[in-house]
Specification:
- With 146 residues, the chain is mainly α.
- It has one domain (18-77, 84-144).
- 62% of the residues lie in helices and 0% in strands.
- It has helices at residues 7-13, 24-29, 40-50, 60-76, 86-95, 101-116, 119-127, 131-144.
- α3 packs across α4 (60-76).
- The protein starts with 6 loop residues before the first helix and ends with a helix.
Length: 146
């Protein structure tokens, strides 16, 4: 049985569910895709996580944005999982052909980092939810699918 998020955890991260786009940070970030035609918005979101030194914790907003970017990359490669916001679907229609193996590797590294060592993971651990780890694991599987 899934335990509901505690009110304190939900309020602290602005989440209404465990899904990649079910939080304020990812919902706000996805608007940045509107003018992105060179993958810079996605690369920046992923690099913001991957470039954090290993002795530092990845902060929750950056983790949320990286997961959203990774979800869009997985969907652009035909491995759609989550319900995508309209801005993400529009970006995929315009730019799916730009997603290459290097970008997939960057997305995979970012998701792995978030799933192991991030403030977001700690918040979900505090909430004692089994749903978030499943969401992240599913995303990793879809990124690794060739």
């Amino acid at each position: 049985m899934l335990r509901p998020l505690t009110l304190a955890t939900v309020n602290s991260m602005g989440a209404w569910g465990a899904g990649v786009f079910e939080n304020d940070d990812a919902a706000d970030w996805v608007w940045e895709l509107e003018d992105d035609n060179d993958m810079s918005v996605l690369h920046e979101a992923l690099a913001d996580v991957v470039d954090v030194p290993l002795d530092e914790l990845v902060e929750a907003p950056e983790a949320c944005n990286a997961l959203a970017a990774a979800e869009i990359i997985a969907a652009a490669r035909g491995h759609r999982g989550a319900e995508l916001p309209g801005e993400a679907r529009a970006w995929i229609e315009r730019n799916a052909g730009l997603v290459d193996a290097r970008t997939v590797d960057l997305a995979t590294a970012a998701v792995e980092r978030v799933s192991v060592d991030s403030e977001l993971k700690d918040l979900w651990d505090e909430a004692e939810s089994d749903e978030w780890p499943r969401v992240v694991s599913d995303l990793l599987e879809r990124l690794r699918a060739r």
